[in-house]
Structure formats: C-alpha cells, structure tokens
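Recall from the previous lesson that a structure prediction takes nothing but the amino acid sequence as input. Here we apply that procedure to Glucose-6-phosphate isomerase from Marinicauda algicola. The sequence below is the only information supplied.
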Amino acid sequence: MADLDPLAPHAERLSKADLSGLVGRDEARDQALLLSAAGLTLDARKQRLDAEAWQALLDLLRQSDFEARRQKLFAGEVVNETEDRPALHTALRNPDRLKDAGTAERIRQARRATANFAMRAGEGEFLSGHPLKRVVNIGIGGSDLGPRFVYDALKAWRRDGVEARFVSNLDPADLEDALEGAEPETTLFCVTSKSFTTQETLMNAQAARAWLVSKLGETGVSGRFAAATAAPHKAREFGIEPSQIFPFEEGVGGRYSLWSAAGLVLEIVFGPEVFEAMHTGAREMDDHFLDAPLERNLPVAKALIDVWNRAGLRKLSRCVAAYSSRLERLPFYLQQLEMESLGKSVTREGETLGAHTAGQLVWGGRGSDVQHSFFQWLHQAPADAPVDFIALKSLATSRDERAKALTANLLAQGAALMAGRKGEGDLAAHKAMPGGRVSSTLLMDDLAPGALGALIALHEHKVFTEAVLYRLNPFDQWGVELGKQLARDIATGDVSAFDPATRDLIARLGL
Ligand SMILES: O=P(O)(O)OC[C@H]1O[C@H](O)[C@H](O)[C@@H](O)[C@@H]1O
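The prediction returns the following tokens.
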C-alpha cells in the first residue's frame, strides 16, 4: 500500500546488512529499541533496524491519524465502523474517560455486580450450603481464550480449594473431561457468550444442564448456572436466573472481553481483588499508551517492529516463545487477538490492501520445549520468522537452578539466531547456521496479576496501532460468518448448493 512505501528503501538496505553489526554500534539506536512500562521491558535491539529506519516508522505513525483514533478509542467513540460501535475494553479498566456518562455508569455498576457475586459464589453461597470446588466456563473464542490463558498464568493465585475448567469444543469429550471428578453439588457453570447465540456454547450449556439435572434433579440447576453476555434476554430464555446473569456492553469486542463480566470465571476463582489487580496493571499500560511520547511508547514500539517485519522485511509469520510453563497458552490467546483483528484484506474505506500490509500469522509455544521441536526450522530453514521471547525476571533471579537454566536457554536462542555459525574450515555444511535472524525479548517482572494485565493491554494496543498504520478495522471479524452459515445448512440438510466434493463427504459421514 502506498502509505507504507517510505519503508521500502530502508528494507532494501537493511535486508542485506549484517544483523550483528547493527547491535552495539550506535548507542542512540540501541537505547531507542529498549523500552519499559508497567513492569515490562521490551528489548528489540536484535531487530534489523537502524536509526533511520526507526525514524521512518515513527514518521509514518505521526503522519497517520493515530493520535485522533487513539483519542476516539479511549473516549468511547465509534472506532469499529463496519459495526458502528465503539471498542470499550479500555473503558472497562477506567470508565472515567468515556464521553457518555450513561455507559460509564453501566460499566461501574456491572463491575460492582460481578465482584459481589464472585465474592459470594466463592464462599459457596449459591450452592445450598455446599462449598464451591469447581467453576466450569462454557464459551468459545473470546469467551474462552482470554479467561483460559489468564487462569493458567495466575494459577498460583487461586482461592483455596477452587479450580476452573474450560469447555469450548463440541466434541462431547471436552465437557466430559471438564466434569471428570466433579461433584454436581459443588460445581458452578458460567456460560460466557457475548451473543448468546454461539452454537458450540449453547449446545454445551444444554449438555451441562442435562448433566446437573441427571444428578440433582431440576431443582439442582437453580443457583448453579451463571451467564455473562451482551444479550441478557437470551440468557433468560435459556433459563438462567436473572440475578445470575451479568451483562456487558455490545461495544466490548469478544477478544477484548475478559475485562468485563466475560471474566467472571476468573473473578470467582481468584477473587475480585486479583481481578482488580489485573485491571490496575492494564490501566497502567493504558495510561502509558496514552501519555508516553511515541518514541518511548511500548505498545507503539512493538507495533512498529511488527509492521516493519511484515510490511518492510515481508515476514509473513511471527513466533512467540514464552519461557514460562504457565504462559503456555499465550500464543493461542494472541492468535485470536491478532489474527482476528488484523487478518483483513481491505481498509476501513473498503480499498484492497497490499499483499504485505496486514497482520502476521502468529504461532509459537513454550520454551524451552519448543527448542526441541520447531526451533530447528527457525535456525536453519531457508525461510525464517521473527521471534518474540517472553522472559520472567522472577525466574531468572530465583534460587532454583532449573529456573535460571530455563532463562539461560532463552538468551542462548536469541544470540544463536542472530550470530549463527559459519560453515567455514572444517565445519560441515549441515552444521552451518546462517544467523542474521531477528528476535525481541520481552521481560516481565513476575507472573502476577498486574504484570499479566499489562502484558495483555500491551498487545491490545499494539494491535490497535498496527491497524491504524494498515488503515484496517481491527474490531470486526466478518470472515468467520460464512462457515457458520454453511454449518447450519449442513445441519438442516440444505446441501444442494455445496460443491460435489463436500456433498460427497456429507454423504460419506452420514450427516
Ligand atoms: O461470545 P460469543 O458471542 O459466543 O462469541 C464467541 C466467538 O465467536 C465468534 O465467531 C467470533 O469469531 C469470536 O470473536 C467470538 O469471540
């Protein structure tokens, strides 16, 4: 796309440059690529960037409508044009910036209501005298990935004796697994669905209800179901008691919803204080994103780097390697956040985007495990991908030798990707490593609610900033609709319009 053309000469120059030679040569360049905010530090010195290219990226952002759109985002004005909606996730962390006082007040009330319910539910109040032992969240997409990621990450912060399980898939084994060892008396189901029309969620919620009825009878259902939704009337139609239905705003996007009632499972399992501490960390990142100068702004820097690698250096994908057992689900969470937001082909005005001017394919896993699987590809395959390493300072400074060794592995990988090993002298060709492969390292102080909140907000704002540069709408997801319609057609036997290969499979599978 024409707007990003100024990157081309820099990409041409730097794609041939020696990456190792870019590091440690220009103090100002190195300092510009090392930024901190809200307990997070981004070290992007191993990126294929020099001071001129960095300046070109900043100039592009300054010349865009970034500042005006960021203002609109925080004020709750329409930024999701195709759905004529605001995007209210930052307002869930701080409603005071909203222009519309009514929405701000509804958000405050909703927060009070979930906190109150979570506190009482955690004490077993709705289970006819039984203690709460398990909360089963039934939801999919944004109603699953965010809460599930946070639950795993903050496991150490659970209330005593309470655990969460997550059901998203229509394979009956998913609910079966979530109910393994569950006592019906001490189990609470949270049905999380913004639309309350999602097939997977409604079918699983019916199956969960049937399980409860089979164990405790109809009366046992009362109190053991709660809902988080932007369509409360549909939750009522489903049979959930109005006092246990927690609404959130239509303007909260599914993949941005964990801060709303959609995070109910977290608020119950961890307690409202932990949920609030996550909000506080995210709010710190929000304030930084709003107030820090662009050249010292962490989400902005991360966005510029990812745009540079995609649009400048044409790296289709990005690998996220989190060196923390409990951050294993980070890549899954980011896949939805980034790929549903930035996987678009047209601008907000409907113009076709260039082939290299939309979001990256995000993939990854947990370090050091991934070193023993796909890192071979990263080191020696002819194509490559930038890597985001995530490191916990608390592991590096731990007294546990294993934790130190884990972090040493992370640093070794970044260094090896950059330096490589030349196939000269006695070194056999298959042992040579090309090097010149870029990575960033994101340092988190520790795996605590505040730092995790900041990590999520960082990525939300990074995606927003990229979307501004690509001029696309990051808040809609029209691409997921056609498949849903076609699945309904198959279910209702309306298959005449399908291609012959699909019709044959439908027949073979007896659908
Ligand atoms: O929360 P729900 O309305 O049930 O939606 C669940 C998910 O399904 C949709 O198809 C979207 O692709 C996701 O963005 C959304 O999070």
